[in-house]
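Lab meeting, item 3. Inverse folding demo.
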């Protein structure tokens, strides 16, 4: 820990002496805590951080329209457009790599569920499924199942390690939650939790914001903080020790995420890619998602705010959107590429500005909850490493099968607990029908096989299939073909055994 004198000197140099203005009023234990927090800051880089934040917030976003082009088709694989033979080969390649312990998954879980109206990590959220499972449990069970599928095919006993990047807010509750739930059957030694860095929020004129008299207003450094966190927490070393060569990185809030998706991994490995992005076709031109494309010949994600409306609306000869590759925060990296990023490129990552309402203490020491944005939080994004890739590929998947994020509280039109729950139930209903089951509604009437719904509507049936029974619809025919089943219907391992015995 630095001395008060050293901290004072560093703050003066950075143009931030106001940080210690309430020091005389603090109690001894508050002083100790505050000094520790300030000692852990990158005080040398503080001046640059504050000036850069103020400068970035004042600059209009770049307009990239004249420099962008779609990713060329030879770098794109697609669940819908690639031939069945290729898809099967990629799936086999992915399962082979998994069976050889060469694949890990990494979860970006630094955010709280504030927009959902809860103060705990999003992964602990229960969207109201018949089983009551949380996002964390669903994801843990998908890892168990994909290990089982790889072992069954290759006679192996494999492990897919789960790396979980948390923040100061989510680490302790996440650790406790997994411990209390016996890690949902996973081996604790194969789960590695680590923390991303926190950085200070800054006013529009470049001053660090005090949250209270003895605490800075801090925020996680965005999911692009991953690359520094991988080094600081020796995660890359852990991967090397385990023999992990390929990493599937994804965001906590997608209820349909295919953990260590063998088709995606197999595609990327077959193409010799060092970096890959899963995408879904944009629902409509102005959908507020980033687009995976090329800028001046280099692959990257262009945010919707960086494109003019007329560019987003461009259509090709078949009336399809030219810029349709919607980014869903679902990526593939080789460990070698991540090592490269950590050693050579991390300092070059772009900084993004988020203008926020940040609670603060005023010059008189009064606590203020602002009613309009007053601060800048700087963030890096996980996809900002794409331009450094030597061989970047894109894999397009079907939104209804693989992407339904949880971002908003119920009542919102999109991305709510209801839409996430309905996406999963609709998917499982289709799996059951495809396997040859007949499902009955609450009145004993047969539900038509065509009763397809979008995630926003009421699902036709409460039909939930445990990931421990089926990873992505496989293996269900044996259990369900020719069966007539009343709903609500939960197909867990116990029920699967019963059906198997019939």
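The presenter then showed the designed sequence:
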């Amino acid at each position: 820990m630095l001395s008060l004198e050293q901290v004072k000197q560093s703050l003066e140099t950075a143009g931030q002496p106001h940080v210690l203005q309430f020091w005389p009023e603090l109690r001894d234990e508050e002083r100790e805590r505050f000094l520790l927090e300030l000692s852990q800051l990158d005080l040398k880089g503080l001046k640059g951080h504050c000036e850069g934040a103020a400068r970035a917030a004042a600059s209009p976003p770049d307009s990239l329209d004249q420099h962008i082009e779609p990713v060329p088709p030879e770098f794109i694989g697609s669940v819908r457009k690639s031939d069945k033979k290729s898809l099967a080969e990629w799936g086999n390649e992915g399962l082979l790599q998994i069976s050889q312990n060469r694949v890990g998954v990494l979860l970006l879980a630094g955010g709280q569920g504030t927009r959902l109206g809860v103060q705990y990590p999003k992964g602990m959220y229960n969207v109201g499924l018949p089983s009551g499972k949380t996002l964390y449990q669903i994801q843990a069970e998908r890892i168990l199942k994909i290990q089982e599928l790889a072992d069954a095919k290759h006679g192996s006993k494999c492990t897919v390690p789960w790396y979980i990047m948390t923040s100061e807010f989510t680490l302790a509750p996440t650790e406790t939650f997994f411990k209390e739930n016996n890690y949902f059957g996973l081996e604790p030694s194969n789960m590695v939790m680590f923390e991303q860095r926190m950085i200070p929020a800054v006013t529009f004129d470049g001053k660090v914001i005090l949250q209270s008299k003895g605490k800075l207003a801090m925020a996680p450094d965005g999911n692009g903080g991953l690359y520094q966190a991988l080094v600081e927490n020796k995660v890359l070393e852990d991967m090397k020790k385990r023999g992990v060569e390929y990493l599937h990185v994804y965001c906590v809030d997608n209820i349909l995420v295919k953990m260590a998706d063998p088709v995606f991994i197999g595609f990327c490995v077959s193409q010799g890619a060092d970096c890959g992005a899963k995408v879904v076709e944009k629902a409509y031109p102005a959908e507020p998602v980033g687009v995976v494309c090329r800028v001046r010949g280099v692959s990257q994600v262009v945010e919707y705010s960086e494109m003019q409306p007329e560019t987003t609306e461009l259509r090709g000869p078949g009336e399809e959107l030219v810029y349709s590759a919607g980014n869903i925060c679902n990526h593939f990296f080789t460990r070698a590429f991540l090592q490269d990023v950590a050693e050579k490129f991390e300092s070059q990552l772009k900084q993004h500005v988020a203008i926020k309402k940040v609670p603060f203490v005023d010059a008189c020491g009064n606590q203020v909850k602002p009613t309009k944005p007053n601060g800048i939080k700087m963030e890096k994004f996980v996809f900002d490493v794409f331009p450094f890739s030597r061989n970047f590929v894109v894999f397009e998947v079907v939104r209804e099968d693989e992407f339904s994020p949880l971002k908003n509280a119920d009542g919102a039109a999109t991305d709510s607990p209801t839409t996430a729950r309905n996406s999963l139930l609709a998917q499982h209903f289709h799996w059951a029908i495809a396997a040859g089951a007949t499902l009955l509604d609450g009145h004993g009437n047969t539900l038509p096989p065509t009763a397809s719904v979008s995630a926003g509507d009421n699902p036709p049936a409460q039909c939930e299939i445990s990931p421990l029974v089926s990873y992505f619809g496989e293996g269900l025919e044996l259990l369900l073909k020719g069966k007539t089943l009343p709903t609500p219907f939960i197909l867990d391992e116990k029920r699967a055994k019963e059906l198997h015995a019939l």
